From TrEMBL, chain B:
The lineage of its organism: Bacteria, Bacillati, Actinomycetota, Actinomycetes, Propionibacteriales. It comes from Kribbella antibiotica. It comes from the Bacteria. This is Sugar ABC transporter substrate-binding protein. It holds the Pfam family SBP_bac_1. CDD domains: PBP2_TMBP_like.
Length: 319, 428
């Protein structure tokens, strides 16, 4: 007798099967009703735009006239003729390489500091997280003033201290580090997740290590890091995805300049799809760029997950 | 159930219709003509007051309450939704591009039919540039933008440099910039975003044209070629040298604060438009300043640019809309410009109010320079108005600006021009 025949047999019983069958049916309907908003939302706001954007990527479309099918023409222009595309990819890669490790290291360091017991720790945690809840556009604009090379606060302070100043956002070599510096202002978001992870590490592990004579560094390397490694993996994926989609900071701080030094892919897509007044949108071309970014994100996340899982700690012990 | 569904559909349709700016009202009442500007709240209030004086029992004018920020995004969205108002502020490039797409009403025949509002009453270069290759006019120019060099007279005097005046040369300008650099907290002697930014190659045409050479392109609206002749290359070399010496702000310099830095005495000389005069009139910089025409090599040459008002093709009452358009161009500026003299009207009989306001405010150098610019025989367009103009901007960032910065040799200039010619040929 196989398992699937059991319910049928039960259903043959007097008065039971019929009721159960009706109950199961209404449960199924209820289940579909409950997930319907999510399915409808996904279809309307993700599925359809995804399919539509793929179609538009194969067309020349300016939003004013009907799309004209050009096959892979947009992709040929992307990889062969557009002087802004490869610099945009390079700028995006540079931002990821600078921002992701720094945000993880600083976030973890801040979390370790805030995980200690000392007077005023709650205030420190609040202050560290405060930039995350402040309006992004306001803080970015403030940073733009701080980094102004002529009248900005940072150069004024450096100058008073007799230290070398910089052009910051107006220097092709310093513009991206300046953007990343500003982005690290919001490292409290990374910190708060690390802090939650640190507080879930069993204290008896540290106590046992202390008894065995382990110092703080050994405890960090051999207990803390392995235990929170799943959270580190999560953070790597979250931060990489966020970095690949960076938009606000370069848009407000530099608008992609000087040259193409901070013209990240998201900004390039925006400028092609929604150009300045007087320019015609290139929505088909921007859609092609969107698909390149989409594929890059999927590839990077898959690689990150693949390689990070090799050293990620997982508790496989049976309960 | 069916009745409810139909009712709901009608209600939704009614809401959507109400959102549209170009609805023209009931068929038996006065028609409504909607107007959208990119002006500030204060200027819009003055325009609204002036529009209230428009008397026609069959026409009601409604100025849409739209914040001035992100006008480009707004225009783009309304265009795609086919909800553009009957009259909207537009640039020459928008007018050219939209007309080519068949999106705008062609007013050329209306101008031909009118004696007091004919083409001869407008600044000739504006009419020429607002006409498409096939003779259409998808909008009418409303205000002229003239350009020149703003200078801090106090800084010039303190540095012992002669105050610039019409007829000064490019060498005079770069020489002054070198002497002013580093004085009184000025990092650069000259900030010239129009020369070093994305429109730089077009602005540089002033040098070659003034020297008797060829402009960067034969026509910004309908180009057939781009070129960099010997005179043009000479102009680029001089700019590159000035940037290298540190006296001119390099490409990438954030010019968005240049106006306030100029007012604070930190920028002694900058390229800019006449519209800054209106701001200076309110903010009153502490330094003594002036406005002078662009330098020349042998003959005067300047930039051409103007803005205007366009009407979408689907506007229902074109005759009523044209009456309001005519009122805007002939009467409204008389009310707006005395309070905020931003630009001279393209309709020449309306220019008196602009110049009177500036004269009253003792902005005599601005009056002289604007008049000289409007009368200039040699003008060059500020940028391409074509649909592929965005691609030219990217090429300029990749190829032209590195030449100005000294990162690429000037011998790369022909290769850059060749790529622009490729775009012209392929049409983007």
């Amino acid at each position: 007798m196989n398992r699937s025949s059991r319910p049928l047999q039960r259903g043959n019983g007097p008065g039971r099967g019929k009721g159960l069958s009706r109950g199961a049916g209404s449960d199924t309907v209820a289940a579909y009703l409950f997930i319907a908003p999510a399915i409808i939302g996904f279809t309307v706001f993700v599925g359809y735009p995804l399919i539509r954007s793929f179609y538009l990527a194969l067309t020349k479309y300016n939003g004013l006239a009907d799309p004209v099918f050009v096959g892979l023409g947009n992709f040929r222009r992307l990889f062969g003729g557009d002087p802004a595309f490869w610099p945009a990819l390079r700028a995006t890669g540079y931002l990821v390489v600078l921002y992701v490790p720094l945000s993880l290291i600083l976030g973890l360091a801040l979390a370790m500091f805030c995980n200690q017991r000392f007077r005023g720790v709650r205030i420190v945690r609040t202050l560290a997280y405060l930039p995350v809840v402040l309006p992004a556009v306001a803080t970015i604009t403030l940073w733009k003033f701080i980094l102004n090379p002529e009248v900005g606060l940072l150069n004024t302070v450096l100058d008073r201290l007799g230290l070398p100043t910089s052009l910051w956002l107006q220097s092709p070599s310093m513009s991206m580090p300046s953007v990343v510096l500003m982005m690290l202002w919001g490292v409290g978001g990374t910190m708060i997740i690390f802090l939650a992870a640190l507080q879930s590490v069993p204290t008896e592990l540290y106590e046992a290590a202390k008894v065995d004579g382990a110092g703080p560094w050994s405890a960090f390397i051999r207990i803390t890091l392995p235990t929170i490694s799943p959270i580190i993996l999560l953070q790597v994926i979250l931060q990489t995805t966020a970095a690949l989609q960076t938009f606000n900071q370069p848009k407000i701080l530099t608008n992609g300049g000087p040259g193409f030094s901070t013209n990240v892919l998201m900004l390039s897509i925006y400028n092609n799809g929604f150009p300045n007044l007087g320019r015609i949108p290139q929505l088909g071309y921007a859609s092609a760029q969107v698909w390149v970014l989409f594929i890059v994100i999927i590839a990077v996340i898959a690689l990150a997950a693949k390689f990070t899982s090799l050293w990620t700690y997982s508790d496989n012990t049976p309960d | 159930m069916k009745t409810k569904l139909i009712g709901a559909t009608l209600a939704c349709a009614g809401l959507l219709t109400a959102c549209g700016g170009s609805d023209s009202g009931a068929s038996d009442g006065p028609v409504t003509v909607t107007v959208m500007t990119w002006e500030s709240t204060q200027t819009n209030a003055v325009i609204k007051k002036a529009l209230a004086e428009f008397k026609d029992d069959n026409i009601k004018v409604e100025l849409l309450d739209t914040p001035s920020g992100q006008y480009g995004d707004k225009l783009s969205s309304l265009t795609q939704a086919k909800k553009l108002p009957d009259l909207f502020w537009c640039g020459n490039d928008t007018e050219q591009q939209y007309t080519q797409q068949g999106l705008l009403v062609d007013w050329s025949s209306k101008l031909k039919d009118s004696s007091d509002f004919g083409a001869d009453k407008f600044v000739p270069s504006a009419i020429a540039n607002w006409t498409t290759a096939d003779g259409q006019m998808g909008g009418l120019p409303s205000l002229m933008n003239t350009y020149g060099v703003w200078y801090n007279a106090d800084a010039f005097t303190a540095a012992g440099v002669t105050i610039p005046k019409a007829g000064w040369t490019w060498d005079d300008m770069y020489g002054a910039a070198a002497k002013l650099t580093g004085k009184n907290g000025a990092k650069y002697g000259l900030v010239a975003d129009q020369l070093t930014g994305p429109d730089g190659p077009f602005t540089m045409s002033m040098y070659s044209v003034s020297a008797g050479g060829a402009p960067f392109t034969d026509d910004v609206n309908h180009p057939t070629k781009a070129e960099a002749d010997a005179k043009y290359t000479e102009g680029v070399q001089k700019l590159t040298d000035a940037v290298k010496s540190g006296s001119v702000a390099p490409p990438g310099y954030d010019a968005s604060n240049a106006q306030s830095l100029f007012a604070a005495g930190k920028v002694p000389m900058m390229f800019g438009g006449q519209w800054l005069a209106a701001g200076f009139q309110v903010d009153k910089p502490k330094v003594k300043y002036g406005f002078v025409p662009f330098p020349q090599v042998t003959t005067p040459a300047t930039l051409y640019d103007s803005v205007g008002i366009c009407t979408p093709q689907y506007t229902k009452n074109q005759d009523s809309t044209f009456k309001v358009l005519q009122y805007l161009n002939t009467k409204v500026w008389d009310a707006v410009l005395p309070e905020s003299p931003v630009a001279p009207p393209a309709y020449t009989p309306a220019q008196a109010s602009y110049f009177d306001a500036l004269t009253k405010a003792e902005q005599t150098t601005v009056v002289d320079t604007v008049k000289a610019d409007l009368a200039a025989e040699k003008t060059v367009g500020v940028r391409f108005t074509t649909q592929w103009a965005q691609q030219v901007g990217d090429l300029t960032t990749a190829e032209y600006q590195p030449i100005i910065s000294g990162k690429k040799p000037i011998t790369n200039l022909p290769a850059y021009v060749e790529k622009i010619n490729g775009l012209i040929k392929s049409g983007g």
